[in-house]
Specification:
Residues 15-32 have a biased composition (Basic and acidic residues). This protein is an alpha+beta fold. It is 45% helix and 13% strand. It has 2 domains: 29-246 and 411-485, no CATH class; 249-405, no CATH class.
């Protein structure tokens, strides 16, 4: 650029001599797109350790075609039970049976609770080496609606407990496999389930190519709204999205507080017990959680401090969270403004990402994290177009927590309850959302160059998804057998 304006660290050099698209294409020689069918998973399970008991056959034979092994029961699966045990470490002991019971509900539910197990399986698979801020748990139920700062609904990835910098392929494969499992749970035909996975990958690929062609700022600010549904050719899903949107608009702190609190003397309110999901906590615990808000205020945007200063802290309760996080410590804090209108914050324990040991095996940096709550919050902000304006982090009794609004007009589609004819539309929508999220941290030109115009990647990952769904069904069957034998205590149907 000459001597007048020297290069500034942190910015690109001019002219942009490198061609990310060409570099992405070159990666096809190193990692052919067909390699994503998944040919090393059985070896990965062997390395992880088997021998906890006989494997239970899944009853499906598609693993032969996908390269996952020698058919049903052909590979070691008992390591899945060890993975469940390992993932329960550090959780509240009395809530572990509830977590196991929720994972036992279906193979799709098992997948939702086993992000670490899938990462272990994927760690030995080929990767391009292109890093992105990944969700780490991008299954089909982790996409949904939420409100921006002005109350408008947007669609995006919405769970970041496992977020790390890692292989973009892992999120794509987890999404694809989850769509197959969700479709099977909904009673869809096998070709419909595979088509949903195939279409999700295709939408990811096409969206990444679109973003690669846009000016950087336009690509960065691509809003996930009805336009994206149209782009993803998911118009048949609009009616479902409208229904979910109407419900999401009613899903507010006020509605939750009206159901979960009661009036007390002096005009305030307090939480009421609603076991096993919501319970009041002892005074010392409530004081510790409320006191942690002081640390939170130092992490939230300074422009939000006058807003929070207009609320008074009234009560704290413990609230059980979703399948993957059951057993972790999570609280809701009731705030009231001068009119008595509520704002509820969630203070949720942030554990180390279950993916961390495996991204290192895949060749990505796995540096120590100073604060797990900060990791979650920054990962969320890197992936979403717009994020909760009250995101922050803190510590309670020395443990890290993330802080966010609770019931911020959130809504989601249950992929396992969709009509089979809508599953492929949902796959295309979520695939497009995932591409947009990855493009914030990875150059879309690089990934688009690798993915290409052909459907080679779509075919390969769809085959992987069917095979991994079979494997997950076998893992789920092992879990049920362990529950029946008494090896794993479980509260079923809760």
């Amino acid at each position: 650029m000459g001597t007048r304006v020297p290069h500034v660290a942190g910015f690109a050099r001019w002219p942009h001599e490198a061609s990310p698209k060409r570099a992405g294409k070159a990666l096809r020689e190193k990692v052919p797109r067909a390699a994503h069918r998944g040919g090393r998973l059985d070896r990965a399970r062997s390395d992880a350790g088997a021998g906890l008991g006989p494997a239970i056959e899944s009853g499906r034979g598609s693993a032969i075609g996908s390269g996952l092994g020698s058919g049903p029961g052909g590979g070691p699966r008992a390591a899945a039970l060890q993975a469940v045990d390992d993932s329960n470490a550090g959780r509240i002991p009395e809530l572990i049976p509830l977590r196991v019971g929720r994972m036992a509900a279906s193979p799709f539910a098992f997948l939702r609770g086993s992000a670490g197990l899938m990462a272990a399986d994927l760690a030995g698979e080929p990767v391009t080496g292109i890093g992105a801020q990944i969700c780490g748990d991008a299954h089909a139920a982790n996409f949904g609606l939420y409100a921006d700062a002005r109350g408008r609904l947007v669609m995006d990835v919405n769970d970041f407990d496992e977020t790390v910098v890692g292989p973009w392929e892992w999120d794509v494969k987890r999404l694809a496999a989850s769509l197959v499992l969700a479709g099977r749970e909904a009673g869809a035909a096998e070709d419909v389930c595979r088509a949903a996975a195939y279409d999700a990958v295709g939408a990811y690929r096409r969206t990444m190519r679109l973003l690669a062609k846009l000016p950087v700022l336009d690509a960065w600010n691509a809003i996930a709204d009805e336009k994206l549904v149209t782009h993803a050719d998911a118009k048949d899903l609009l009616g479902t999205i409208e229904q979910v949107s109407a419900k999401a608009r009613r899903n507010t702190s006020a509605k939750f507080a009206a159901r979960a609190t009661e009036a007390v003397d002096g005009g305030g309110r307090r939480f009421t017990d609603a076991p096993p999901v919501l319970r009041r906590v002892a005074d010392r615990e409530a004081a510790a959680v409320a006191g942690a808000l002081d640390g939170y205020l130092r992490t939230v945007g300074e422009d939000r401090l006058p807003l929070l200063a207009r609320y008074a802290v009234h009560d704290v309760a413990f609230r059980v969270v979703g399948t993957g996080s059951v057993g972790t410590r999570s609280y809701v804090v009731l705030l009231l403004d001068h009119l008595g209108e509520p704002l509820v914050l969630q203070i949720k324990e942030a554990r180390p990402s279950a993916l961390l040991p495996y991204v290192a095996k895949a060749g990505f940096p796995a540096d120590p994290v100073a604060h797990e709550g900060r990791r979650v919050v920054l990962g969320q902000k890197r992936m979403q177009v717009v994020s909760d304006i009250l995101l922050g982090w803190t510590e309670v009794d020395g443990l890290p927590y993330q802080v966010r609004q609770f019931r911020n007009r959130k809504g989601s589609v249950d992929p396992a309850a969709l009509e089979p004819g809508l599953l492929d539309d949902y796959g295309r929508m979520t695939g497009a959302l995932l591409a947009r999220a990855h493009a914030h941290s990875a150059d879309p030109r690089l990934i688009a160059g690798y993915c290409g115009k052909s459907e080679a990647l779509d075919e390969a990952v769809a085959d992987f998804a069917v095979g991994y769904a079979d494997r997950t069904e076998a893992d789920h069957a092992d879990l049920l057998a362990a529950i029946r034998s008494g090896r794993l205590p479980a509260e079923l149907g809760v």
